[in-house]
Design goal:
Largest sheet: none
Number of helices: 15
Strand content: under 5%
Number of strands: 0
Helix content: over 70%
Structural class: mainly alpha
Distance between the termini: 30 Å
Radius of gyration: 21 Å
Amino acid sequence: MTDASSRRDTVGRAISALRFPLIIGVVLIHCNLLPSLGADATGRGHDILGYSVISLLSGIMARSCVPLFFILAGYLYFRGVERFTPSLWWRKTRRRFMSLVVPYLLWNLLGLCGFILKRHLGASAGFSQYEDITLSPLTVLAGFWEMPGTSYPYDFVLWFVRDLIIVAVFLSPVVWYMARGGSRVFILTTLAMALWGSGVMYIDGWYYFYAGAFVAVTRIDITWLGRYVWLLSGIWLALALTVLFTPEAAWWNRELVFCCLCCGVMAMTSVAIHYVERGGKADAWLENSAFFVYACHGLYSSAVMRFLLGHISPDSDWAILTVYFLDLILLIGVSLLLNSFCRRFFPTVASLLTGGRS
């Protein structure tokens, strides 16, 4: 095996090792119970530790998982591509119809059923926000793109898949030519993101997809990141703590958050490369379960949090953290059980729901 093929193999195994841990990070974002409590980490009393831990993990560090997913998608899309022709674009688009579009529609159909149920239960079950939404053929169809009054589809976590479909299908030719433009275009685009683009849906997804494409097209060797796993992880933690204690109104906050996201991407990649270079392997079952867990937990994440807050009063640090980590365990555990059930008794359905990943 040549050095180049060995490096590609290392990166491929690292990507496999990253998939399920990154899904845990995404679930962790949705375990953030601070909005439900109507407060944040600032100005708290005895329970400031619990609020700060949740803000650090869910509000800051776990958010690097989403950019990394876009980067991996862009990298895998353009890995090994020498010429981006219309026929190649069509082949990739047809494959993504089964791997992205079909599961997107099916999971949102399940989300629509959940939405109708929540609307029927209304205020008695804590879903009063849905009572005033008028159902019509137009609003029902619109919900597969954005539910009324939100920027998310019925299965809200699938906004990522929606944006990825847009970028991969409609913007991939533009991404290809930008990636071929070299490091100067990449640096200018990154500066623009740091100054103006961070936090804007669609733009963020496009940029990170382009960043992954740039690495693939220019064949940058990223295996060196594995040699600096502790340094990068330490810088990421330091930046995350700085974000935690920096006022949102500070003029440098946007750039600080962007740097923290990028450092998190590099740190997590370095951990994965370090892991596989020392003989570590991805668990195949967990890797294949990642998409199911991701799509499934969005259907009931708010219900689980309401249930926990209804039975555990968040009046201390330990109570707050207990709700937080129980939420994470339940969301992942139930999703894995449902995935196992579907794969055992309804394998065809499981394959459609995961785009063939089962």
